[in-house]
Design brief:
Elements lengths: L2 H22 L5 H6 L6 H12 L2 H14 L4 H25 L4 H8 L3 H33 L4 H51 L4 H4 L6 H7 L6 H11 L13 H15 L3 H4 L8 H37 L9 H7 L4 E3 L22 E6 L5 E3 L11 E3 L4 H8 L4 H39 L5 H24 L5 H25 L5 H25 L19 H18 L5 H10 L6
Antiparallel strand pairs: 1-4, 2-3
Helix pairs in contact: 1-8, 1-17, 3-8, 3-14, 4-7, 4-14, 4-17, 4-19, 5-12, 5-14, 6-7, 7-8, 7-17, 7-18, 7-19, 7-20, 8-14, 8-17, 8-18, 11-14, 12-19, 12-21, 14-16, 16-17, 17-18, 19-20, 19-21, 20-21
Length: 594
């Protein structure tokens, strides 16, 4: 069968499974809608957390970034992994002991202020919408290639699926759906990685395979001599004008540090992950689920560098210096999506891949126009400052990897299903955060305290439905690659939530005035920096124009520091919190084992 036939079958089966689970686990109360009635087993909650955590950025985009950035791409790997450990060890037990539904609830009660709650609601919505934009783009990328529909149509299909099981099932439905999605995405990620590792090195464990020597079969596939796979990749990279794959150097040290740190502390401030620890029956269960989730996450994260290396080596060897007629079928298939393109700059009829950009700005294509070699015609101006003729969207690397390696059609379709599972699982968690922020924190606790439970549940579902529509718009008009967009969300979370949660748990003197001004100053600074360089003046988005050489992806670290300083100084200058609040903080710091 063809790839598209297999894709329809496997994606159709998985979607039917997700919708069936959502109908079976339909939420009947606000407790089930917000926190699954706190009845989720730690192992299942660990799997659900893993699916919630490993978004389209992890599944689709992270290996692509590592593949293009080499060692520097590991900042995403280190930041997200370290951040989860920070969250699980430093915050989860304390917040679980607090026992409420949402982060804005914690902020509102800890800082004894409805104004603080409203500011936290605004921050949660802003962060979540930024994050969900990356997930919807990931859905569009998958559909555009494997179901051969436009990216915008793919986003709308994803919106429909998420709408059904997020709006209907709430946290209860989402949790059990995410358990199924974790099984799908981890299987889809590992099977091609194992196949390719065996093909190139003879080692069935990809985490070890990419550090092994090429096998005879691998040398024959790549048309190269023997040696270690990474040594061969370094050699090829340097011959093309890139720095060695294992040496990094594409980013400054300070920017790598700032991005890594922003991703790490941003993790600890992400509302859709924090809320997962409220779904277990006990504090002990919250801690256990954190440990299980770390194990489930590590399986994919340790395989990502291998996938990146395999894909990079295969891609260069199958494309560079080949004529368009010799180009492999995967390239021509992806060319139809507008996510890869080639323009013959020197007129030799061969694809030249080197350092730099092939085009200036976002790609635009002449409708149905075909060039002299049969390639799709790009109307975007060429970047004459570089010799490279090839553009490849970083978000396609994992999805195209099985095609590049010429794996069976069913494996390619399975990867498509895995990418959709990763994107949709996180999108659902984020939409639930947005819905709960509107219905519980804003309507129930601020606008209409007397609303009935049924009315609150209806409001939550309406809010989730509206959030799906807005998320779809951002998925159609994203500000960057999936991982870039997600990095912006982490920066916004780092600059808004992390300081007030940490100081709220560990410093009794933190006041409502300090928290409000800290959150506002941190997120406004970070958002303004990102918006300026990504939307207002994208031509200025270069290292020489950044503050201290810090990119928009890493500026959340500075925003976090501003938040900490403002919160501390203002708290020192204002009246200390009431005694009952300070007593609550003291009790939070000693979570009982239950």
């Amino acid at each position: 069968m063809s790839i598209i036939a297999w894709t329809w079958i496997i994606v159709g089966i998985t979607f039917a499974l997700y919708i069936g689970i959502a109908i079976w686990a339909k939420a009947k109360s606000t407790g089930e809608f917000y926190v699954a009635a706190k009845q989720i087993h730690p192992v299942l909650n660990g799997m659900a957390t893993g699916a919630d955590w490993m978004s389209a950025a992890s599944f689709i985009s992270m290996a692509g970034l590592i593949s293009f950035l080499g060692r520097d791409g590991a900042m995403y790997l280190m930041g997200w992994t370290g951040g989860y450990v920070l969250l699980a060890m430093l915050l989860a037990p304390y917040l679980r002991k607090y026992g409420k539904y949402t982060v804005p609830m914690f902020v509102g009660e800890r800082y004894y202020s409805q104004a603080a709650r409203v500011v936290a609601v605004i921050c949660a919505i802003f962060v979540s919408f930024t994050y969900v934009a990356g997930q919807m783009r990931g859905v569009g990328v998958v559909f555009s290639r494997f179901l051969e529909v436009p990216i915008n149509t793919g986003v709308m299909i994803g919106m429909g699926i998420v709408f059904i099981y997020a709006v209907l099932g709430g946290m209860k439905g989402i949790t059990y759906t995410q358990v199924a999605q974790y099984c799908v995405l981890i299987t889809a990620y590992l099977i091609p990685a194992i196949f390719i590792s065996i093909m190139l090195t003879g080692n069935p464990i990809p985490q070890f395979g990419y550090g092994s020597q090429l096998s005879e079969n691998g040398m024959q596939i790549l048309g190269t001599s023997g040696g270690y796979l990474l040594d061969k990749l370094n050699q090829i990279q340097m011959e093309l004008g890139f720095s060695a794959y294992t040496s990094g150097g594409s980013k400054s040290t300070i920017d790598v540090f700032m991005i890594t740190f922003a991703l790490m502390v941003g993790t600890a401030g992400l509302p859709h992950i924090i809320i997962r620890f409220f779904t277990t029956p006990t504090i002990r269960g919250a801690r256990a689920s954190a440990g299980w989730a770390l194990l489930f996450i590590a399986i994919l994260y340790t395989a990502a560098p291998a996938v990146a290396s395999f894909a990079r080596l295969n891609m260069i060897q199958t494309l560079n210096n080949k004529s368009y007629t010799e180009a492999p079928s995967w390239f021509k298939n992806w060319e139809k999506t507008g996510l890869v393109a080639w323009k013959d700059k020197n007129g030799d009829g061969k694809i030249q891949y080197a350092k730099g950009n092939a085009f200036k700005g976002k790609l635009a294509f002449d409708t149905n126009a075909v060039g002299p070699y049969g390639e799709r015609v790009v109307s975007t101006p060429l970047d004459e400052t570089s010799t490279t003729e090839l553009y490849i969207d970083r978000d396609i690397i994992v999805l195209a990897n099985p095609e590049i390696a010429k794996l069976p059609a069913w494996v390619i379709a399975l990867v498509a299903a895995g990418g959709l599972a990763a994107a949709l699982s996180t999108a659902a968690g984020l939409l639930l955060v947005i819905a709960s922020a509107f219905s519980h924190d804003l309507i129930k606790n601020v606008i209409s305290p007397g609303i009935s439970e049924k009315g609150e549940l209806i409001a939550a579902r309406i809010a989730a439905g509206g959030a799906v529509m807005v998320a779809g718009y951002f998925g159609i008009h994203p500000p960057g690659f999936v991982a870039q967009v997600v990095a912006f969300a982490f920066g916004l979370a780092a600059s808004s939530f992390f300081p007030v949660i940490i100081m709220g748990v560990f410093w009794k003197r933190a006041t409502k005035e300090g928290a409000i001004l800290g959150m506002l100053s941190g997120i406004i600074f970070t958002a303004a920096y990102i918006i300026y360089f990504k939307f207002v003046s994208p031509d200025m988005n270069k290292a020489e124009n950044w503050l201290w050489g810090i990119s928009p992806e890493g500026i959340g670290t500075i925003g976090m520091m501003i938040n900490f300083v403002v919160t501390y100084v203002v708290s020192k200058l204002t009246k200390e919190p009431p005694k009952e609040v300070q007593d609550m903080v003291a009790s939070l710091r000693y979570p009982r084992t239950m």
